[in-house]
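Researcher: Next entry in the queue.
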Amino acid sequence: MKKKLFWFTMMALLLLLLAACGGDDQTGSDAEEGPDDDNETSEETFKIGILAPEVTHGWVGAVAYHAEARLEELGDQVEYQIQTSGNAEQMTSQLDDLMTWGAEAIVAFPQWEGMDVPIQNAIDNGVTVVNFDIVIDAEGVYRVTGDNEDMGIQGANYIVDKIGDTGNVVVLEVPSSGSVSELRTKGFEETMAEIAPDMNIMTYATEFTREAGLADFSDILTSVDQIDAVFSLDDETSVGVLQAIDEAGRTDIQVVTGGGGMQEYFEMMPENEDIWIQSALYSPAMVRDAVDTAVDLLNGEEVEQEIIIPTTIVDRENYEEFLDTDSPY
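Model: Structure for this entry, 329 residues:
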């Protein structure tokens, strides 16, 4: 009888022990995988649209590349769409499409006139708009850009430093680029008037392509006998300018400026000892800052209305610091 009572007692204790252990396992599973903890670790996903021009220029292509690369790096924080267009009408339609899709923020890179009203409409409808590069006349728009006016100021100072305060300087403006050309030319002309008022300035229109630089500057070379320096606003244009100079066999030109951050152009700098080849760095990677600004605003952070990235001058003396084999431009 005592043996039966002993075994009965031991079996009861064993069952109680197993029940206790099983209860502890279930509690641990609930703690690690319960819905409350999932809610605590989840992050909101934002819808961000990118509006960019069609790729007709290496710099523009690099902008789209860096924008998408940054959005990919943000991972689950964002859901995005990238739209490219060939004119203001098409970009306006794409802007409407992004709003219908539910975009909470749009990073816009318009290169044409006529986008002010559509962008203002998007802002009025509650969309956060971060404009990249070009000036847009819209209340409430944020902007990330390089310092276009300072690029002109630096170009004037660079040319005077190399050729002195007198000579013949050709300015290659690009009216189709809107505020970019206006501000760069303004900075150049105002600075030149101050530091070298006797400089002879000759202004011609061109485009931001090497083909236009070659064709337009070839024509200029046939009509102007003496040119001491060229104030070009863009690296690709300047590649064409240098080709025109080489093909014409001209030896009078001492300085050719540029702008952007083109690797091919950088590599040309040490190859020509007779011409100071200069670029005012205007990196397409700046668009990453525009994307980050959009995310910061959607997260409720305080952001400056306008973020201007300072100018850096690149020439044969420091070009190696800016060589990047991974750059798409």
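Model: The chain has two domains: 46-146+284-309, 148-281.
Researcher: Noted, moving on.
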